[in-house]
Amino acid sequence: MRLPVAISALLALAACTDRQSVMAAHGPEAGRVALLAGIVFAGAAVIMLVVMAALWVALRGSESQRAALAGETAIRIGGIAFPAITLSVLLGYGLWLMRDSLADAPPALRIEVTGEQWWWRLRYRGGDGAAFAEANEIRIPVGAEVEFELRSADVIHSFWVPSLGGKLDMIPGRTNRLRLRAERAGVYRGQCAEYCGGPHALMALEIIAMPQAEFAAWLTAGRRPAPAPAGQAERRGAELFLAAGCGGCHAIRGTAAEGAIGPDLSRVGGRRFLAAATIPAGRENLARFIAHGQDLKPGNLMPPFRLLAPAELDALAAYLVSLR
Ligand code: HEC
Ligand SMILES: [Cu+2]
Description:
By secondary structure, the chain is α+β, with helices and mostly antiparallel strands. Helix content is 40%, strand content 19%. It has a five-stranded mixed β-sheet. α6 crosses α8 and α7 crosses α8. The longest helix is centred in the first third of the chain and has 33 residues. Bound molecules: heme C and copper (II) ion. Heme C (HEC) binds next to α7 and α8.
């Protein structure tokens, strides 16, 4: 009975994707973490086998074997010398291995990431042009060293994208710096890794690593004002956005909406997810989030707009989807 259970458990584990996994390292920083983890796991497995053998001797061994195991020499070697040496070597090796992450050559790009209850405020800097705001979905160029400036606006959060690097806390009043590099294009999922109250479990993010040229075009477009509403529904949505008071909390570049409490929505239509990587994007889900956000992400800091009529919600969603 046990073997089938164990095998089916392994099959279930095999279904884990590598979108958010320490085991699937896609950058040098994550590679070092994975290497250190591998060494620790392998070493721990060997030690486990030795301990099990000692346990077997203690239970089933001959009189003299058991006496040796209980003697002072065994304790001096196995209980004092071995752990002291192993842990010291491991600490030294770990510090040496992680030294690269403190490199001080200027990065190709700097992105400010501020943890907010319960989403991520972003600001792109560097390059030649002006800085601009974004939220929740971080785009970076493949192969380039990116420095993340991690801050918090309220409580302690933690920034962790396992496939690209180790996790680093975001502490109120402090700026922590993390250097990451994605070795190939792709989407890497991350998660707030420090309990920050309420819907902490629904505070995720994605880093999208794009080919250099594509990224450069995206960055240039990001500095421009949001596109003007094209169709009738979009124009109605833009009016409603201001009339309903959304602009008190949200900014859309180039419009009268300049709120700074919630995520910047200038390019929300281009995002893969809403509400910090919790709800797939799209027109229907945008409308649902505006009216029923408290059901979809309970406790989040946006009040639900249940009084808007379905047609109004659809117009708002049409406008927001067009912002790319
Ligand atoms: C009191 C401030 C406030 C008001 C008013 C407000 N929002 Fe929000 N909104 C927020 C906050 C805070 C979030 C982040 C929620 C989260 O993910 O935890 C948010 C999230 C969003 C998102 C998801 C953004 C993203 O990056 O995932 C959309 C879309 C949105 N709001 C649209 C609207 C619209 C449309 C209105 C007007 C009908 C509006 N909001 C009014 C505070 C507000
Ligand atoms: Cu959190």
